[in-house]
Amino acid sequence: MDFTSDEGWHHPRIVPYQPLTLDPASMVFHYGQTVFEGLKAYRSNDGDIRLFRPEENFKRLNQSCDRLCIPNVNEEAMLDYLKELVKLDKEWIPTDSGTSLYIRPFVISTEATLDVSPSRTYTLMVILSPVGSFYKGGIDPVSIFVEDEYTRAAPGGTGNAKTAGNYSGAYKAQNRAADHQKAQVLWLDGVEKKYVEEVGSMNVFFKIDGEIHTPVLNGSILEGITRKSVIELLESEGMPVRERKISIDEVIAANESGNLQEVFGTGTAAVISPVGSLEYKGYDYVINDGAMGETASWLHETLVGIQTGELEDPLGWSVLVKG
Ligand code: PMP
After folding, report:
1. Does the Cβ of 128 fall within 6 Å of ligand 1?
2. Are strands 271-280 and 142-146 parallel, antiparallel or unpaired?
3. E strand or H helix at 215
4. How far apart are CA 258 and CA 287, in angstroms?
5. Cβ pair 189, 199 in contact under 8 A
6. Count of beta carbons in the 10 Å neighbourhood of residue 262
7. CATH for 142-308?
């Protein structure tokens, strides 16, 4: 689908996967005016396809568009187009456990000019790819490196938009984590480097003294759809989640005193990812003996069950596309 100032968003179409031809001066190459989304579709044995909260993805796409000065898309029309697309590709969605179809909508600015100003033309594309189970050999808690040199986002920046620069800007820290044999980066806030923000491509939760806590959304944290779902699910079970500022010192102190029971990340790819260890300022802290905790296990089982249609969907999250 394309955008021009005259016609707005127009010409939605489904075409075979193929390379793109773009002018080398296309603004996206130079100024990174681009946003994306990521969601999954599951297919059950009866052939029905389930999209998990896709309207949330299109809402967030528009929030990202606003921040990057990209014109909004029609969220309802996008959902209709997506349904068509997944129906067409349903044979590509495996029905075996844990596998799904990954859906990547994205927008690029295409005007060919070296001027530094918002583009007047855009293209929105959606690519689809079958993905295997995230945890092939069972759930394995991840190791985390608390990044205290680079920051991912700052107040007023693009942290809560899903835009390319946030990810390329994170590579240095990811490499630093890998040098320390850690799988993921835990980001701190961009002002004091004191408050926990999020993990790589996941939001983060802490179970302290039996209560679940997560960093409050502050404009520099991505508003994860899995995060929102975890909060709603726990609240529906009578377990309110405390959204607040959480300092890394508080997390370390809670671990030292034996009050930190669990740490886990939430995101579309892994759904729930338990954290087994945390390195901060040269010290390695083991969490919950490096094992997955009961809350993370329950959340993983429940969310995956709802997404695949194996469990009831009490909060009405799945959008069913009849096979
Ligand atoms: N934070 C970042 C930076 C991410 O890229 C993602 C993945 N989209 C998340 C958090 C988790 O968001 P969601 O639950 O919507 O996948």
Report:
1. no
2. parallel
3. strand 211-215
4. 9
5. no
6. 21
7. 3.20.10.10
Task: Tell me if 38 CB under 6 Å of ligand 1.
Answer: yes
16's CB contacts (< 8 A; 6+ apart) are: none
Q: Could you give the ipTM of this predicted complex?
A: 0.99
Classify domain 2-131 by CATH number.
Answer: 3.30.470.10
User: What is the distance between the alpha carbons of residues 67 and 53, in angstroms, rounded to a whole number?
Assistant: 22
For 27-120, strand residue ranges (E) read 34-36, 39-43, 49-52, 100-109
pLDDT digits (tens, 9 = 90+) for 253-269: 999 999 999 999 999 99
| Distance (Å) from CA 199 to ligand 1 centroid | 9
Residue 225 in contact with ligand 1 by CB distance below 6 A: yes
Torsion angle (degrees, nearest 10) of CA 84, 60, 66, 3: -10
Q: Look up residue 8 and give its amino acid.
A: G
This prediction has a pTM of: 0.96
What string of DSSP letters covers 98-118? T-EEEEEEEEEE--B---SS-
Q: Where are the domains of the chain?
A: 2-131, 142-308
